[in-house]
Amino acid sequence: MAKKIDLKMPRWLMGQDPNSRRENLHYLTHLQPPRFSARWCFGPPSPKPKNPEQVFVETGEGDLVHIYDFLWTDPTPDPDAFDSLMNEAIDAVDQWLENNIAPPTR
User: Fold this and answer.
1) Range of the domain at 28
2) Are 69 and 51 within 8 A, CB to CB?
3) Residue 6 in domain
4) Which one of 2, 30, 47, 89 has the lowest number of neighbouring Cβ atoms within 10 Å?
């Protein structure tokens, strides 16, 4: 009998749409409350986000990460908690880039 291994659920998942040819469009999912999925890209999104008022832009210079088109499973956090969560999302994107081939714009 095989030994049972408890799998730890990751906090973040990153991915791309396997049916899309757009290499600049990425997805991220937060698996702990508040749970959500969103799109992210470098520089302003194209085509435009479904809700342009709900776009988080990384602080800094150059081709900044934009997070948009949120799909919330849990209630949307208050503005301070949202900003904190989005900064964690930027850190998760940076970690993902360190572990994978970074796009040439980064």
Assistant:
1) 24-99
2) yes
3) no
4) 2
> For residues 90 and 104, what is the distance between their CA atoms, to the nearest angstrom?
18
Match 């479904």 to its residue by tokens: 50
Q: How far apart are CA 106 and CA 94, in angstroms?
A: 10
> Is the pTM value of this prediction over 0.90?
no
**How many domains in the chain?**
1
- Calpha distance 37→67 (Å, rounded): 10
Q: Are 33 and 73 in contact (CB under 8 A)?
A: no
